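Here is the promised in-class demo. Please do not try to memorize the tokens; focus on the logic of going from shape to residues.
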């Protein structure tokens, strides 16, 4: 779905509010978004944990998370390093020599720090001083002889190569240079520690917030989301195979702030363990840029429910969707006239049910549904604040009808500009606009004769038209 097409308001927020178990949300926004819309309701269900290293929500630090907790074996350390690499480079550039060597070095340093319960800030010190033998000694003491030998080989290699590898690794871990960012993943005795395994069996909510782009803390966000999902899978496997109630993981802006490299491979396995991922992307190509063409195809295939909203400008993807929706037979009647009289013939031709240009022109509020085992369907997306808006609309309608006014209610899922043009075409002199941004008892009044517009309480509507 394109920006401002209802991804958050119509999909993420309702899913979060209805979730019976733990909820994880990643986002690069807080104000007037899923965070502010759900935090109060979720606080009634359980504890609110907010990891906001770049102060997206200006939330004070009230927790810390041990980012090295899963890095106490080589696989976990390399996985953590992979998050820092993925946050900095695209999938196509993540396998060159410098990226691979820097990732191996980061993994070795993470393993050395985690095994001896060192803070992650020690890793920054080791990166700044390649000649420091401390990480090599720590790895040797812990029995990781092969990893220690590999790290020693990097340090002892050609100076230009070593410096290039370490500089690349420093760039990948650069977000930790900010002490305000590093504090969220550094032990703090006066704050509660967030533990993913405990979270998986709770009804708590974890908000993971980060900016996107260079210098962001998206590597930390991806690592935290990955740790939660993997911990939830472990808990599920130890308790019969599935989490009950299931954990909902809403990965909003997943390609920007939560680049988990093997998410396409995890997708089907997560669902079978009661961990429900909801990955929200702006376009199919955005997913291809993040996970590669094969990875995005795997993610698409593994998702049992796919919702595509307005803003599809990729002609190839629109044509693919059109072919998935299918064809239908259209009856064509032709009439010909000759000297011998008139003849009529009926023939059938095949047409796309929804051609690519119609998919591109989907209005905001409409979406296509592709779910396993059923034919494609067209959806009307509802907002969670729609019931309250309808109640206010009903109040306005009652006030006007009680005083004999003729009214027209335009509740089509069309942009506001289109509704205003239609009202002008009908010659309607007055309009009341009801939107989610107004107060609970307010509406906007527009006098089309004078172009005057202002907000007013619903109780004052009769006075506006001298109907009292």
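The designed amino acids, position by position:
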């Amino acid at each position: 779905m394109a920006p401002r097409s209802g991804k958050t308001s119509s999909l993420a927020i309702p899913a979060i509010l209805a979730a019976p178990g733990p909820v994880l949300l990643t986002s690069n926004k807080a104000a007037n978004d899923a965070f502010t819309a759900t935090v109060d309701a979720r606080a009634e269900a359980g504890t609110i944990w907010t990891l906001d290293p770049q102060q997206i929500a200006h939330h004070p630090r009230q927790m810390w998370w041990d980012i090295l907790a899963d890095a106490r074996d080589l696989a976990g350390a390399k996985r953590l390093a992979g998050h820092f690499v993925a946050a900095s480079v695209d999938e196509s550039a993540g396998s060159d020599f410098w990226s691979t060597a820097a990732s191996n070095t980061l993994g070795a340093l993470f393993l050395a720090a985690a095994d001896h319960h060192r803070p992650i800030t020690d890793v920054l010190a080791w990166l700044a001083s390649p000649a420091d033998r401390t990480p090599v000694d720590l790895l040797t003491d812990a029995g990781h002889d092969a990893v220690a030998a590999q790290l020693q080989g990097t340090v002892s290699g050609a100076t230009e190569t070593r410096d290039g590898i370490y500089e690349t690794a420093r760039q990948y871990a650069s977000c930790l240079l900010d002490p305000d960012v590093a504090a969220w993943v550094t032990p703090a005795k006066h704050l509660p520690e967030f533990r993913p395994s405990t979270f998986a069996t709770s009804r708590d909510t974890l908000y993971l917030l980060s900016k996107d782009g260079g210098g962001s803390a998206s590597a930390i966000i991806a690592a935290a989301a990955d740790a939660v999902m993997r911990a939830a899978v472990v808990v599920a496997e130890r308790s019969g195979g599935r989490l009950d109630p299931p954990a909902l993981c809403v990965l909003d802006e997943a390609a920007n702030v939560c680049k988990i490299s093997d998410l396409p491979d995890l997708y089907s396995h997560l669902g079978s363990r009661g961990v429900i991922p909801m990955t929200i992307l702006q376009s199919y190509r955005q997913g291809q840029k993040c996970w590669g063409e094969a990875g995005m195809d795997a993610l698409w295939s593994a998702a049992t429910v796919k919702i595509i909203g307005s803003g599809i400008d990729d002609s190839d993807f629109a044509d693919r969707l059109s072919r998935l929706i299918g064809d239908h037979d259209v009856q064509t009647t032709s009439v010909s006239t000759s000297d011998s009289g008139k003849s009529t013939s009926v023939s059938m031709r095949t047409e796309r049910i929804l051609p690519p240009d119609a998919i591109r022109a989907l209005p905001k509020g409409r979406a296509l549904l592709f779910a396993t085992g059923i034919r494609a369907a067209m959806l009307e997306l509802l907002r969670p604040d729609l019931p309250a808006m309808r109640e206010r609309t009903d109040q306005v309608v009652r006030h006007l009808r009680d005083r004999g006014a003729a009214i027209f209610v335009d509740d089509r899922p069309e942009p506001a500009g289109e509704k205003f043009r239609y009202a002008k075409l009908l010659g309607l002199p007055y309009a009341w606009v009801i939107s989610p941004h107004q107060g609970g008892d307010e509406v906007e009044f527009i006098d089309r004769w004078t172009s005057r517009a202002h907000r007013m309480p619903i109780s004052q509507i009769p006075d506006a038209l001298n109907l009292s």
